[in-house]
Amino acid sequence: MFTDLHIHTTFSDSTLTPEAVAQEAKRKGFTLISVCDHNTTKSYPQLIEACQKEGIHLIPGVEIDARDGGQTLHILAYGCDLQNTALQSLLLFNSHVMEDLSVDLIAAMSKDHSDLCPAEYENYERDPLRGGWKGIDYLKSKGYPADYPECMHYYADYGIKVRQPFESVETVCSIIHEAGGKAVLAHPGDRLPNEKQAFVENLERLRGLGIDGVECYYPSHSDEITALALRFCKEHGLLVTAGSDSHGEFAKFVKGVEYYIGAVEADKRGLNLEGILPV
Asked: Which residues form the Polymerase/histidinol phosphatase N-terminal domain (predicted)?
């Protein structure tokens, strides 16, 4: 029973519709999946119907930005009541924070590029099937190179920073728990120091802040990082998950690593999903 618990759809920044996700999961032989769109659960009405049609079991999920000192971590929320008011308020706040970054980017770039217009951008509707997000899709529509991760240099070059900080890891975990869910640290190998002692110390610190598990199996993780994460979870009775972080054709290749549904073929029997139930 193969499992992929970290997939994105066109409702955030993937090129895959909910229907395409369900069909691809079935084609690859996956029987249990979760879609964790960035700061939104809007795909779920379509997704539930699509997965039922294809005979795929579906765990409700969402990927949430959280502040951890001077960096941003991603927390995967599994098994939440998707209608929970506090959870939806957090997701809406995060979505506004992210969109403000693009609003500020287009305003800054328009001073150097006459073909970019903040007023035009305000009324612009992105093409979800191209993947990415509104700001990047607008730049693409104007002919600017905007593939990921190269497109991120625009934000760096213009010094674009968040207007308001995200909620802390501790607060995000608390909201997830109040919504009846579990908080899992996403792709720690990409966010935490990879030196053995520092990696484990950071996992211990984050456990104290409320994480219930770790995404141990991930396309870019080295064998050492995977083993360290698995050992830590086993020692502390934490959840163990696996995810491809597929965005369809968007961000399919990053730093030589390919991300697609099935990039991590983890058998459910090798995971720990205690307390997380499919819808």
From this structure: 3-68
